Amino acid sequence: MINMSQITKVYNTGNVAFEALRGIDLDVADNEYIAIVGPSGSGKSTLMNLMGCLDTPSSGKYELEGHRVDALTANQLAEIRNTKVGFVFQAFNLLPYASAYENVELPLLFAGMRARERRMRVMELLNRVGLGDKIANKPTEMSGGEMQRTAIARALANRPKLILADEPTGNLDTKSGAEIIRIFDELWETGHTVIVITHDINIANHCKRVIKLKDGMIFNGIGARVN
Amino acid sequence: MRFSIIYNVFMRDFNKQRKRMLLTLVAILWGTLSIMLLLAYGEGLKTQFVRGSSGMGEGIVILWGGQTSMAYKGFGLGRHIPLVEDDIEYLKQNVPEIRDVAGEYIRWGAEVKHKEMILSERINGVFPVYRDLRNMIPEMGGRMINDLDIEHKRRVAFIGDAVKVRLFGTEDALNKTIYIESLPFTVVGVMKHKTQMNSYQGADEDVIVIPASTFVTVFGDPWLDNIVYAPKDPNQSEYVERRVTEVMAGKKKFHPDDESALGFWDVIQSLKTTRNMMLGIEIFLGIMGGLTLLIASVGVANIMYVSIKERTREIGVKMAIGARRSYIVMQFLIEALGITFFGGFIGMSISYILTEVFKMIPIESDIFEFMGRPTVSLEIGLVVVAILGVMGFLSGLFPAMKAASVNPVDALRHE
Questions:
Q1: Are B222 and B244 contained in the same domain?
Q2: How far apart are CA B10 and CA A221, in angstroms?
Q3: How many domains are contained in chain B?
Q4: To probe the interface with A, which of B15, B18, B321, B327 has the most A CB atoms within 10 Å?
Q5: How far apart are CA B34 and CA B28, in angstroms?
């Protein structure tokens, strides 16, 4: 699924160059369930942005599903984000003025899917996350858990294999957080690769593999357990 | 396929942000209304001025006798060059570029009487062709001087509409008898009212026209005051003027380069000048309206910028779920163009309705005589659409470029 070698990311803020990632080597097989942990500023989000093709590495080689993606054009990257990766954010990042239905529909619009097909897909996705009866609700009319489930439905819209979640339960109460993790479990069981950034030790333990980051480098050995 | 994506996304965003869109729409509407009404006003003004300028006759040149300023063939300076009836036929024969030519005699301050009313009026002795050259159209039931009138030296008169009111008031004037210098004349026609903004002897509404032959008999005046001619090709008027001078110089023995021997008033050129002046006024009004519209466009651009700032995170989200930069650009561009054209369309419709309503108001006043009535023409519409297009595009382009330069990673972090 993912092959990264000697990936670095340098941010130039004014005169100071900040090395967010300093040589990451990482292989992720198909259908893995991974937690990325580490203190603030360790480069977790930067790594996830690179994995999701939101950003490009400063140097190094990155293959996603067997294809080099470290030197693609902006439009090619947009297409990968649209079809091969699903993002779930801590702050949900739903469009505030759009209903649950419209939010889930958006990636399908970008993919150029026909209206009929779109309608069926959106309904299928919202039913899958248990929101079939709330399609017309706007984010302000939903609970945190519902918003995050909408966001997951959106991430799954174009049936990507890779799901990237940046602290998906960070803004949720325990019960809602557990529901989200249960959905991730299901996704993993149906063949998705799920990668979750988390501060929650329970979630990290729940995952099948944990990657520890510190100062822009992977700290633990591949496959090691946290405890 | 790609367009439908953009359209779908746009329509959704538009529906969700109605209030902001509406306010901007009103600004564009107002700008469009301003430019349309100003241009419509200019168009009405121009139409009226051109009509008024051609009230005296279209495509004509007025010719009168002057004084020589060059010695020639033994004649000294300052010799008067009179025009006579012979000259009319002579010009017709020798300058084939002339389509029509007529002479006219003028007598100022003739005594004119009808019943108890005694007036001092201007009398013109003219030929039938004068009717078309000088645009003197009779009202229904009446006629202008004709060939038989000339042949039989009939005592008939064609009177201007203002003279008619002075002599007859509201009474019917046709076939009534008036006395000019104590001689009875039958009124055969009253001039249909026309807008006349220039003249060389006074307005035509104030004149009493009689046959040239009768005029000579009554007043014993052998000298023509003017010759009026129309070149076949109005664009050749300068060349024809040159030819007329040469031919007349031969006949009357003055130097062909003597510019003061004959006087010319080229009404064709004057009309061109008037048209140009009016075009200038129209452009000026257009610029005024255009500036109003420009301010509205700045409003659109401003709102788009604010919108981008507010929607930075949204742009980031859209990019994260697979929107290409071009979609973002197109979204803002189409939004700006959509507002501009929609507002413009409403503004144009309102201005069209207003001018139509204005046309229906039946006001007969001197103001309209000079100002004309505002008219929306197809040309004005096209010009405004073009301006709207350019402004909509520009007001969307810069914000859109800014939106597209947003980095998705930063945008997602944006609060």
A1: no
A2: 48
A3: 3
A4: B321
A5: 10
Residue type, position A37, single letter:
V
Q: Is A92 on the interface with B (CB under 8 A)?
A: no
Give residue-wise pLDDT tens across range B375-408. Answer: 888 888 888 888 888 888 888 888 888 888 888 8
Same domain (yes/no): B277, B397? yes
| Domain-embedded: residue A51 | yes
Query: How much of chain A is in helix, strand and coil states, percent to nearest 5?
Result: 35, 25, 40
Beta-strand pair B183-190/A67-68: unpaired
pTM above 0.95, yes or no: no
> Distances in Å between the alpha carbon of A102 and those of A105, A109, B193?
5, 10, 68
Given a cut of 70, the residues of chain B with pLDDT beneath it are 1-14, 16-17, 362-370, 415
Please tell me the predicted confidence (pLDDT) of residue A98: 84
Q: Which residues of A touch B10 (CB under 8 A)?
A: none
Contact A78 B319 (CB under 8 A): yes
**What is the spatial distance between Cα B316 and Cα B321, in angstroms, rounded to a whole number?**
9
**What token pair was written down for B415?**
């609060």
Give a yes or no: residue B267 inside a domain: no
| Claim to verify: residue B146 and residue B208 sit in the same structural domain | yes
Helix axes B237-252, B267-310, angle to 10 degrees: 160
* Torsion B85-B87-B89-B91 (CA) sign: negative
Q: Do B319 and A54 touch (CB under 8 A)?
A: yes
B328-332 contacts: CB < 8 A, separation 24 or more?
Answer: B328/B400, B328/B403, B328/B404, B328/B406, B329/B400, B329/B401, B329/B403, B329/B404, B330/B6, B330/B400, B331/B6, B331/B9, B331/B10, B331/B13, B331/B400, B331/B403, B332/B304, B332/B307, B332/B308, B332/B396, B332/B399, B332/B400, B332/B403
| Partners of B63 in beta bridges | B227, B264
- A48 C-beta neighbours (distance < 10 Å), count: 20
Q: Residues 299-358, chain B: which have Cβ within 8 Å of A?
A: 313-314, 316-327
Contact state of B319 with A81 under an 8 Å Cβ cutoff: yes
Backbone angles phi, psi at A11, to 5 degrees: -100, 130
User: Which residue range forms the structural domain that includes residue B83?
Assistant: 67-97+232-260
Cβ neighbours for A129, distance < 8 A, ≥ 6 positions apart: A149, A150, A152, A153, A183
B309 CB neighbour count, 10 Å cutoff: 12
Which residues from chain A sit within 8 angstroms of residue B12, using beta carbons? 98, 102
Do B129 and B26 sit in the same domain of this protein? no
B336 in the same domain as B214:
no
What pLDDT is recorded for position B244? 93
CATH of the domain at A118: 3.40.50.300
Q: Could you tell me if residue A64 is inside a domain? A: no
- The pLDDT assigned to A168 comes to 93
Burial per residue of B146-162, b for 16 or more beta-carbon CB atoms within 10 angstroms, e otherwise: eeebbeebbbbbbbbbb
Residues of B in contact with A97 (CB under 8 A): 13, 16-17
- pLDDT tens-place string over residues B169-205: 999 999 999 999 999 999 999 999 888 888 888 889 9
Helices (H), B54-156: 85-94, 130-133, 147-151
CA distance A166 to B271: 78
Residue type, B146: N
Q: CB–CB of B256/B249 below 8 Å? A: yes
